[in-house]
Write a structure and sequence with these properties.
There is one protein chain. The chain is an alpha/beta fold. It has one domain: Glycerol-3-phosphate (1)-acyltransferase (3-Layer(aba) Sandwich), CATH 3.40.1130. Helices cover about 50% and strands about 15% of the residues. The chain has nine helices and seven strands; from the N terminus they run H-H-H-E-E-H-E-H-E-H-E-H-E-H-E-H. A seven-stranded mixed β-sheet has the order 1-7-6-2-5-3-4, with helices on both faces. Helix 2 crosses helix 5 and helix 6 packs parallel to helix 7. The longest helix has about 50 residues. The termini are far apart. The relative contact order is 0.15.
């Protein structure tokens, strides 16, 4: 009887399995961190190769089928490069998108990997407004042109205006057009002043603006760095902002509203 009472009173030491799980995750992260520099040159070669192959596929699709199919190749290319880079990307707010409505999509810009995350995840037929320098990349530049992406020469006002008019035509044809309103990547992750071009198009075409926040890009590949790191990215879709009630004279208020929407989820 005493033995039974003593056994009941005896408490086994508490074992925290969560601590072992945490250690395992830390060891795995450390192993990846040590191995990734060795893998990085291989990654560059793989991305170069798949960019070339997907560009050819996109050109062929647009030649024999449509620009929409060409953009589907671009979506596959983006997801493939995220996976090869060890980047996990997720999205929230997809229910805020009306698939039958074209948008002017506006997102913050911290990293080249923002393009992969946005193109790979957003369920829209997107036409990008991209800098003219990308047109000079062999095969890739041709693919962008065939898919219907819009090159903009930021150093030539007249040509830039024609590019914005072309973006308006894409919207009227039913495609969504995506801008980085900052015009360039942010080095510190904070939003830079917005350029007005995309807002003028939204007012002229009378289409809603879809604000999007991209988080995690600067940890994967910050501006000025060539060292890609595995990590997590998130695309956050906000409520569309309708341009009814705004004019060219009040577009600064519209710009500030979009900036506030994007900024609230930035880390």
């Amino acid at each position: 009887m005493n033995l039974r009472r003593n056994l009941l009173m005896y408490q086994l030491p508490h074992i925290s399995f969560s601590s072992y799980k945490l250690r395992g995750e830390q060891m795995w992260d450390r192993a990846i961190g040590l191995a990734f520099p060795v893998y990085r040159p291989v990654l560059v070669a793989l991305v170069t190769l798949d960019t070339f192959l997907c560009a050819i596929a996109a050109i062929l699709y647009t030649y024999f089928d449509s620009q929409n199919r060409g953009h589907s190749v671009a979506r596959f290319w983006s997801r493939l490069n995220l996976a090869l880079s060890g980047v996990s990307a997720s999205m929230s707010g997809e229910d805020r998108i009306d698939q039958n409505q074209p948008y002017i999509v506006m997102a913050n810009h911290q990293s080249h990997y923002d393009v992969f995350a946005l193109m790979g995840l957003l369920p829209l037929q997107l036409r990008w407004v991209i800098k003219m320098e990308l047109r000079k990349i062999p095969i890739f530049g041709i693919a962008c042109e065939k898919v219907g992406y819009i090159f903009i020469d930021r150093g030539d006002h007249e040509k830039a205006q024609k590019s914005l008019e072309a973006a308006g035509e894409k919207i009227r044809a039913g495609s969504s057009v995506i801008f980085f309103p900052e015009g360039t990547r942010s080095a510190d992750g904070k939003l830079q002043p917005f350029k007005k071009g995309g807002f003028v198009i939204a007012l002229e075409a009378k289409v809603p603006i879809l604000p999007v926040t991209v988080v995690g890009g600067k940890e994967v590949l910050p501006k000025g760095s060539l060292h890609i790191l595995p990590g997590n990215m998130k695309v956050i879709i906000h409520e569309p902002i309708y341009v009814d009630g705004y004019t060219y004279e009040t577009k600064e208020r519209l710009m500030e509203r979009v900036k506030t929407a994007i900024e609230k989820d930035l880390e």
